[in-house]
Amino acid sequence: MYYIPYPPYTPTHNSEVFDLLVRLDTLLLDRPTNRIKLQPASAYSEIPRNDLQTWMLYRNRYILPTVELVNWLKTKSDGRRAIEICAGSDDLAYHLGIRAIGSYVGFYASGYAVPLFPGQIATLVVSPVPQMDAMQAILELRPEVAIGAWIPDKFADNFGGRSKYAPNEYQIIQNTEYVHIGCESIHGRSPLLGFPNETSKPPEIIVSRTSATPPDNVIHIWKKMQ
C-alpha cells in the first residue's frame, strides 16, 4: 500500500506537526511498503524524544523494531515456530521473518484498521496481515512462541480502558509460550503478571511510546502452562 496522507492523522491544519511527520516518514519508513526500517537503537537517540513520540502517536506505532530487539527476540525464540499477534503494521514480524496476525475487527475505506479501543488512532495496514483472532491463530498455526507488543488488556484498565477485542492472554499462555513487550506504567496492572514469568528490562534495545522518564520498557515471557 503506497503512502497517502490521511487527514485525521496527518494534520494539515498544523504546519509544524505536518512538517515533522513528513520529515520522519522519510527518515524512518521504507518506501513503498511504509514499514519501519530496521535500524540500531542508537539511530533513534539522534531524534528529539518529543518529536519521535509525536510521530509514533500519529503513525500509531507503539514500539519501533531495532536491530538489537530483533536479535534479542531471535535468540529467545531459538529457531522455534513463532508468530506475532496484534501485529498492526507488520513492522516487527517482518523483520523477525515470522507470520504476522492482526487482531483488528475491520477496515475503514481508507485502508485503516478499526481501532481495538475508543480513542486509539487507527493503524494503516501496510501489508496483507490476516485478520484472525489471536487464539484462533494459535490453535490453527500451532506456534511454539507468540510475540505481542503493547497489547491492550482484556481485563485490566490499560490505555484508559479495557478492550473487548483484545486477546485473552490467559488462554494464550495455556497453549504456547508468550512474549510481551510493553512498559510498566501501562502494562504493570495486567492480571497475567500474577503467573510465573521471566522479566527482562533491556531499555537499550527497545524504542517505545512510553512517556516515563527514564523509559520503563519491559519484556515478560510466560512459558506454556503445563
The geometry reads as globular
How many helical elements?
Answer: 8
Order of H and E elements:
HEEHHEHEHEHEHEHEEE
Number of E-state strands: 10
CA distance, first residue to last residue: 42 Å
The secondary-structure class comes to alpha/beta
What is the spatial order of strands in the main beta sheet?
A: 5-4-6-7-10-8
Question: Please, could you describe this protein's structure?
Answer:
With 226 residues, the chain is of the alpha/beta class. Helices cover 28% and strands 16% of the residues. It is built from 8 helices and 10 strands. The protein has helices at 15-28, 41-44, 49-58, 67-77, 91-96, 134-141, 169-175, 184-187; strands at residues 29-30, 35-36, 63-64, 82-85, 99-101, 145-149, 177-183, 198-200, 207-208, 217-222. The chain has a 6-stranded mixed β-sheet with strand order 5-4-6-7-10-8. It has a two-stranded antiparallel ribbon with strand order 1-2. Helix 1 (15-28) packs across helix 3. The longest helix has 14 residues, at 15-28. Mean pLDDT is 81; it is low at 1-8, 106-112 and 114-120.
Architecture blueprint of SSEs:
Elements: H1 15-28, E1 29-30, E2 35-36, H2 41-44, H3 49-58, E3 63-64, H4 67-77, E4 82-85, H5 91-96, E5 99-101, H6 134-141, E6 145-149, H7 169-175, E7 177-183, H8 184-187, E8 198-200, E9 207-208, E10 217-222
Parallel strand pairs: 4-5, 4-6, 6-7
Antiparallel strand pairs: 1-2, 3-9, 7-10, 8-10
